[in-house]
Protein: UPF0284 protein ACFSAS_02105
Amino acid sequence: MRVILVAGTTRTAEIDGISAAGASRDLLVHTPSADAEILAYGDTVRAPVTPVSPTGCPTPAVVTRAVRELLGFDLTVVDGGLARPTGAPTVSVGARPGGDIREPDPVQTAPGAFVAARRFGRALPDDRVVVGETVPGGTTTAMAVLRALGEDALGSTSSSLPENPLDLKERVVEAAFESSDVAPGRAAHAPETALRAVGDPVLAVAAGLAAGALESGTEVVLGGGTQLLAAAALVRHAGVPDRATLATTSYLAADVSELEEAAAALELDLAVTDPDFDADGAGPLTAYADGVAKEGAGMGGALRLADEAGRLGAVTEATRAVLDRVTGDDADDAARDKSRGDTGDGR
Amino acid sequence: MRVILVAGTTRTAEIDGISAAGASRDLLVHTPSADAEILAYGDTVRAPVTPVSPTGCPTPAVVTRAVRELLGFDLTVVDGGLARPTGAPTVSVGARPGGDIREPDPVQTAPGAFVAARRFGRALPDDRVVVGETVPGGTTTAMAVLRALGEDALGSTSSSLPENPLDLKERVVEAAFESSDVAPGRAAHAPETALRAVGDPVLAVAAGLAAGALESGTEVVLGGGTQLLAAAALVRHAGVPDRATLATTSYLAADVSELEEAAAALELDLAVTDPDFDADGAGPLTAYADGVAKEGAGMGGALRLADEAGRLGAVTEATRAVLDRVTGDDADDAARDKSRGDTGDGR
Structure:
């Protein structure tokens, strides 16, 4: 069992009001690098930011890390166009940071990264992989990609903001098609074209990985929301028919009314997991129950794994422990520095 | 517990007769990338070679991987100047492939990589790390570095070849000093100078990591032979006095008569572990008992961990399972493709 986090950036996120992670430019560009470190080490290592939204909602990476500490799965971070260094080990498939999709040709590395990721996905030795993403602004590019493919079962994508800025996203997607040679629906069966013209590099890598893994007989769990749904659409348009699972959170599912229908249309089994963050004792995690963040960094996939292992009830406490560590809320910082959780069983 | 593998290259390895891995240029340049993949995935993924010496001795990476499957430790691969792509996730600290030390200024990235690795080592959250290396030709550059520092307790370094080509190594080291501004002993207390003038990028990164980890209170196990001894010397010359452990194999210890004395001079506790590869049932691993390879890819450190966990007796069988997988010796290749060992406990 391996969880693969695809971490990268698109300048589309810099558009004012698009992303919860985009509250400051620093947070925006460093969040994927920080998320990767949190999954790899249980804390930030090189990244100079702690990804907590302005309203205090912590990055979903702390949840995925908590599940990793509970279950001990392998992790591979794939560089989907990181804009800042990360201390997490990463695999390169040639992706570079994506441009603003309102500009012409924003993701020139997408076709190459899709092909290289697909080859890498085929070579992975695992029986089962969970693919997750971290890319601020990614729901907007995912919406554009679904339109480019002509996949209209999903009217719009979710948002990390409690109030989905749908009008703004519509305008951005419209501008993306205006500046591109591709019209809505005209990139059907041409995933690389859709990704390069109106997508982002994380989506290119996630879709390539999923396609390659499925082609080699690996069970694939897409751990995430509407961005992973877009990845699944890309996999189908690349001619890969094998069933996969979309594993997401109850918060995301509550936000997307057409989720079940969209998943079924893409031949995906849907697994929705509720971590019960509105219960007593969830502390800052109650922000999730208020509709902030909702998903990301493989959270839905990790929760699914925790549920399968019968450890779902332990996630809140484990996540709060990770969160205390990441935000430095411990009583004793010096002790904290050398008391992180392990993920293996060989302690 | 984290094992850190520093993987990279030096063109010094291309000198005829220097390295067991250097039997063919392909094997030479791809071995570190393949070793990293074997540790990360239990098999090669992107690397086009299987690192087995011409006489049939498998890379020590299969031993370290076998211990990983037994114990489940975390792994971080740091790029110490890889010359070919690897499918293993890697952390970059700016190291590039090293040049032939007979040429002037062969390792220009060494000072920067040493500093960045030291900072990274300081930031690592672990209580304890094992640092290992994979770099064909590395014992020759290690010998030159020890001379540059004026560390003469060790007359010469070990070799992956059963007959250590000492005359050849002496000539190479002599030529290195001839083409450099640094004379033997003149780089004392200047580790970056020694590394850049006559070293290799892997040694720069391994020494930097160890120095930084020790400075932040992390327990450091140097898992390897005379190259890790050179790394320890660099750490001391960088002004870091904290005790560390050198954990190596009985095969390496048998080859280096002054090992105990050299380790003591550098304030290192010495741990020598015998995996008993000359016993019945060791198959191709008996090559180790014949003095081939001896050490590498963190093998001595991994064996130490296995011994501490009471699992040393399980290493031979686990290693043979990894080896069958890596060399494709199974009866059923199709089944093999999706039946690798996991390393976590969350299966």
Q: What stands out?
A: The domain at 2-336 of chain B is CATH 3.40.50.10210 (Rossmann fold). DSSP finds 14 helices and seven strands in chain B. Residues 330-340 of chain B have pLDDT under 50 and may be disordered. Chain B has one domain: 2-336.
